[in-house]
Amino acid sequence: MNGPTTGDPRHVPVLPAEVRHYLAPAPGQIVVDATAGLGGHSLLLAPHLGPEGRLLALDQDPAMLDIARARLQGWPVSCAQGNFDQLRQVLDERGIERVDAILADLGICSAQLDDVQRGFTFQQSGPLDMRMNPEEGEPARTLLKRLNERELADVFYHYGEERFSRRIARRIVETRRETPLETTEQLAELVRRCIPRPKGPRPTIDPATRVFQALRIAVNDELAALEGLLAALPRCLKPGGRAVLISFHSLEDRRVKQAFADRERWQALTKKPVVAAEEEVRDNPRSRSAKLRAAIYRPVV
Question: Which one of 176, 204, 221 terminates a domain?
Fold first, then answer.
């Protein structure tokens, strides 16, 4: 079987060896990559499925899915647009009752971060958007206009674990009375001015990081989507099927851990989250925050 003819050297999937090990793809299986991105993990898994196997690549971002589709040409892969909490519906539409394995990498795709117009990063100035699917929902700038001070503070505290959430929310409300917050640069500078400079060495992360994370989670309703996926997994996997989820912050990892702790449904394969080795972190800094958890679906009859 011929492999794909296109690629994107910028995109390196995290924990590739660990994903293959815990997902254990085999010939003839049906496997779902529920967060296809640029297709990096799908490219790792497809060769193990053989000519009789099948991989379903799912992603809510139409631009990313187009790239993945091109990269995956030549493999037994079908692509579908949708969020991972819609997986059961996507399978029903394709006449698939249950699958052998499901992977979900909950991080942001590198191409999304690199695109200034998407508004996920404050490394360069761009519009405050942050939508995973630019065709749906309200952008971050609209959220910043609509929410009141208390609601903004709750978003920053609960989704970003930001200690200065109230101070930041107050400053946003004061600022937007005079000037609307439209760009990532505006918001990042506002947040930096609200947070006291720590004594000692310079912090390793930008003070705006937690607020940007919180906004992104709120804009895309990410935690609710993750809860939807976790609830759907038992209705999508065959008994003995495997689920591998990769999270990038404690809010996600905590939910995955709690779901896989249900011994009436799951046999956990990872007592603690699996993290990247030093070599991978050096070659791919994005992997530093990755935490992988895996389990086998074994329902108690």
Answer: 221
Mark which of 193, 221, 249 sits at the end of a domain.
221
Residues 136 and 272 in one domain: no
Global pTM value: 0.92
Say which residues have a Cβ less than 8 Å from residue 56's Cβ, sequence separation at least 6: 30, 31, 32, 33, 77, 78, 79, 80, 90, 91, 94, 96, 99
Tens-digit pLDDT profile for residues 169-182: 999 999 999 999 99
Range of the domain at 55: 16-111+223-297
Q: Residue 81 pairs with which residues in a beta bridge?
A: 59
User: Taking a C-beta distance cutoff of 8 angstroms, is the pair 47, 55 a contact?
Assistant: no
Q: What's the gap between Cα 34 and its chain centre?
A: 10
The per-residue pLDDT for range 278-290, each reduced to its tens digit, is: 999 999 988 999 9
CB of 32 closer than 8 Å to CB of 102: yes
